[in-house]
Amino acid sequence: MTKWVYGFSSQETAGNKSMKDLLGGKGANLAEMCGLKLPVPPGFTVSTQACMDFYKAGKVISEEIKNEILAELKKVETITGKVFGSEKNPLLFSVRSGARVSMPGMMDTVLNLGMNDHSVKTIAKLTDNPRFAWDSYRRFIQMFANVVMGVNTSILEAQLEDLKEARNYKEDTELDAEDLEELVDVYKQVLLEEFGKTFPQDPMEQLWMSIGAVFGSWHNPRAKKYRQMNGFSDDWGTAVNVQTMVFGNTGDTSGTGVCFTRNPSDGEKVFFGEYLMNAQGEDVVAGIRTPAPINEASKNDSNKNFKTLEEVMPKAYTELVEIYQHLETHYKDMQDIEFTIEDSKLYILQTRGAKRTINAGLKVAVDLVSEGLISKEEAVLRIKPTDLDNLLHPRLDAAAKKEILATGLPASPGAASGQIVFDSEVAQTWFDAGKKVILVRQETSPEDIGGMNVAQGILTARGGMTSHAAVVARGMGKPCVAGCTSLNISEKNKTLRVGDKEFGEGDSITFDGSTGNVYAGVVPTIEAEISDNFAHFMSWADEFRRMGVRANADNPHDAKMAIEFGAEGIGLCRTEHMFFAPERILAVREMIFASTELERKVALDKLLPFQRSDFSGIFEAMDGKPVNIRLLDPPLHEFLPHKESEIEELADVLGLEKRVIEQRKESLYEFNPMLGHRGCRLGITYPEIYKMQVRAIIEAAIEVSKKGIQVYPEIMVPLIGTYKELEILKFEANEVIAEVFEQTKTKIKYKIGTMLELPRACITAGEIAPIAEFFSFGTNDLTQTTFGLSRDDAGKFLPFYEARGIYPNDPFVSIDEAGVGFLVNHAVQEGKKANPDIHCGICGEHGGDPASIDFCERAGLDYVSCSPFRVPIARLAAAQSTLRNKK
Ligand code: PEP
Ligand code: MG
């Protein structure tokens, strides 16, 4: 038989901290603390399984579950000596939601449940404190109306304000018992007249309604959105915690507060917290009154004149100190503890792993290891890899006021604010004049590279997580929000419209590339800072990880940065990105528009020295680490000239009429450029292009090796669909290499391998492997082609697919294990069978995504490669995967 309800008290407790999935985090910790015999008010937890049953039964609490609740309720009555619903000695409850992970967006707390028109009077008498009784009752009605009946309580709050005004009061505390009694009547009346709702007097009805509301809140839009953003399952459900009320507002020997076992901002080992005398929990959270410090260490400018808890209630404080030390040692982690003191008696209402900044997280992890509380392995598993992002990029000031204008895809992390510009030339001019700019575009193209480079960040209306803007911004470490479809951009009129708001060139805007949120005006940001603990912590991660971590870098600057972040090589150098600079893009266009082999050779000869010097720079920066260089793979449409001036310039260089250029441009037009004349197809049709690149790579490698620097070039052929493509291109590359060796009288080691980014290539990997020295999975294209989803256009409808649960998440962000992952697994297995020495890695954007990295570990890849700024994330995620998969 299923057990639905778990009682907790210091006399008997059915749960423990390992039962978070069933009891929720809060419930499991309450049970655990009862097991430790800490002073926790007794109660019971209705399980997450009961929540799922509630939905299965059509949003009703079954009789079986109700009976278990009633039985547990009886036990609480016996322990407390109070009776739920009694007029003489009423037992009151708090009701709180609690999923397995803390989840903002679900139902808030209801306090004082069980009060009604009769018990309020009894409580007034029993406590000899009518004000306290009526204040508790009016708070209860307000909370119940809001979180259970779904009434917007601003109307009730307005009544409270009206009454204060009528009485000429400034503070809530000036309202006396009679005022509050009157307010209760007004509240009930407003509920009835304005909302047609009767406030239920029967405590049992209040309880069933509250439990139903907690379960119901699991599917409210905010909670759903939160789950979707974090990849949490809809099937988890929430538990409900029903707990005996203790009161922090019975007078001057009562209070309530929150404390942290260490400082959550910097991780310093100091006991830290705030409390309010004569108050209930929500007063501390709501910020209506300024809380006082619990001890000297917690004093700051705004609270330094208040008395500390240590001074006011030394006995309760000493007990709290003992308890926090006990809890931290027991949980082996920094805790966030809620407490209430009722008539000088201390109660603990909650403990949980404290939320902390990433800097604090690293410090606490490192300190807990030196304190002998946890092992290095445990420390490495404690930090969420993506949190490291906040260390490396500026972030929005959490305390700043801000209003979300729109939300797009969080394409490249970090916060950016500046003046809007709609084209790259203006971006450059304004930047030169010392302005901070945000480049706002429908979508970006290689021509925007200059503008992107000088902008604080890039905001686009179109494009997905692997679009040009996203990939390039990530590589540069620039914040980017892509595919923000609610932005209406007119590049011609230089306007940006969102809903009824319009912005022009020069107006300020802010966005957060970590969340995808866009804000009007300038929202203050906080600069990134890296502590010593980071290096210390990361050295442990490196100790444990099996897979190598490389970076996707296209120039010496990014390569150097990648090394600083701990990259062990380059996993993808996209050579077409080296062509973005204005003086080069022209030569690339000459090459694309050439109509004879000779014309093409002339253009290629212009590019060769650029390429060679770029490669030399990268080889030098990588100083003996492998460098994987991909032969040209330009989706041609990204390189075509668009502007009149560009067409004219090209016509000039080629000595052709504009009309001819336009005609050629038309003839190059492809309906489906992503599936068109790109990748190795270009190398097959125009062998001289790849030959120039292979020559540049090998000549550069020899040049650098002559300076005494080790070089390990890896030449990578993109987008093959059959082994024959690789066979031909490898043969031609080897011919060039032999020529260079002959000319320079020098030989160096090199590898030739291929990307696997088409399903057919993965399926036939067994045929390809004998002629490849390595495989690198290009999961951007592999996702595009497996799903038949355009990486540039999918942004428009993917959110609907995610919202409806058709895709659990954006497959361009986290690898689709069932489809794309199946192909990768098959290719690795078949590849290794046919060529046991084959080295396998991933260089699609998934290489920087922790969930995908975990997949790579399980698939047996040798390394992952990602943009330089994500290297630390990948190092940590890879270490965690090794540790997790070892268990
Ligand atoms: C890929 O397709 O995964 C890849 C790395 O190549 P690109 O993104 O340059 O197409
Ligand atoms: Mg690709």
List keywords for this structure.
eight-stranded mixed sheet; 887 residues; binds magnesium ion; alpha/beta
Could you describe the 3D structure shown?
By secondary structure, the protein is α/β, with parallel strands linked by helices. The strands form seven sheets. The protein has an eight-stranded mixed sheet. An eight-stranded parallel beta barrel has the order 26-27-28-29-30-31-32-33, surrounded by six helices. A five-stranded antiparallel sheet has the order 1-2-7-5-6, with helices on both faces. Helix 18 (468-476) links the parallel strand 18 and strand 19. Helix 4 runs antiparallel to helix 5 and helix 33 (850-859) packs across helix 34. The protein is elongated and about 100 Å long. The model has no long low-confidence stretch (mean pLDDT 92). Bound molecules: phosphoenolpyruvate and magnesium ion. The site of magnesium ion has 5 residues, from helix 30.
Short structural description:
This protein is α/β, with parallel strands linked by helices and 887 residues long. It has 34 helices and 33 strands.
Report the C-alpha radius of gyration, rounded. Answer: 32 Å
The amount of beta strand, in percent, is 15-25%
**Global mean pLDDT:** 92
Bound molecules: phosphoenolpyruvate, magnesium ion
Overall 3D form: elongated
Unreliable stretches covering 5 or more consecutive residues: none
Number of helices: 34
The assigned structural class equals alpha/beta
* Order of strands, widest sheet: 14-24-23-16-17-18-19-15
Residues in helices, as a percent range? 40-55%
What separation lies between the terminal Cα atoms? 32 Å
Count of β-strands = 33
| Largest sheet, strands/sense/barrel | 8 strands, mixed
